[in-house]
From TrEMBL:
O-methyltransferase C-terminal domain mapped to chain residues: 117-332
Keyword NAD: no
Keywords assigned by UniProt, alphabetized: Methyltransferase, S-adenosyl-L-methionine, Transferase
Protein name in the entry: Methyltransferase
PROSITE patterns in alphabetical order: SAM_OMT_II
PANTHER family: O-METHYLTRANSFERASE CICE, PUTATIVE (AFU_ORTHOLOGUE AFUA_4G14580)-RELATED
Source organism of the structure: Streptomyces roseolilacinus
Pfam family name, one: Methyltransf_2
Amino acid sequence: MANTDVQAAGVADRDLIVRLAFGSMAAQTLRAAVRLGVVELMGDTPRRAADVAGDAGAEPQPMTRLLRALTGLGLLREHAPGTFSVTPAGALLDPGRPDSLTSFVRMFTEPAIVRAWEHLDGSIRTGEVAFDAVFGTDFFSHLAQHPELSADFNAAMSQAVSEAAAALPYAFDFDRFTTVTDVGGGDGTLLAGVLAAHPGLTGTVFDTAQGLAEAPKTMARHGVEERCSLIAGDFFRSVPEGSDLYMMKSVLHDWTDDQAVTILSHCREVLPAGGLVLIVEPVLPEVVDTSAEADVTDGGVTYLSDLNMLVNLGGRERTRRDFEEVCHRAGLSLTSVTPLTDAAPFSLIEAVAGTRKGR
């Protein structure tokens, strides 16, 4: 390799490290933009930074610096000195859009989430959940004690599930079932999408009372409230019987393997003959694939999610082999894993009644 090639590779490597080191600053830049309502104030036409600052109750010069940083991140465009417009990506920070990600940004830049990450090295050393040590309680108990934060979390999860809710109804054969229970279904966004696309199906959203807080509005908004019941409970104790399809999205990754087995075991206990458990989660490859075609890496986000589970919740992202193991321990047999193409990096993991491990 020529010396110039070595130097170019060295510069690229250094640039990568610098960009990663600045990652938390980029996240806080997003947080500031959301808290100030920058995108909402800018609207659909180019605006001067001084005018945006005036509407936001901010100083013009710092606002210009913020807008230029957002431009550097690809969220705005600067047409002339101090005059900016919103890019398509930046428009996702407008809370008025149905596909907005403002609540998602608020939640994942929230100090309650970020503080535990300061102790990632300790979690790596011990395997312990950093959040519990920092806040003196587990994540979901902390949410229960802070209603405003809980509402932000529910809104963030609703925004996070919207892409899957649009893709899932057309990626899986729901018509072979009569009724579906969405275990840990939160505000019902995912199930509402399924029911709206399959009028012959009825369903149940099962979650804590806190998790179900916005579900009635979701069902009414989609016009499916007559075909959906809401049941509050604890999936570590039981799940409602009466469905032939039990679905859960982004639930198991919140929990340890033993806890995941408990949740799945309760689904197995009420699963009728011919019934199915459908798990919607990322499935990590056995070896990290960094090729351009490897959608599962999602720019590394899935692996960062795995570490987030470690420091904040105690759960984990899993490989197919990991899912096979927890399913087998719960008396289920994993039959297929299918990428949810229009909602990468998620996959559809299907499991049917099997034999419990050790029996």
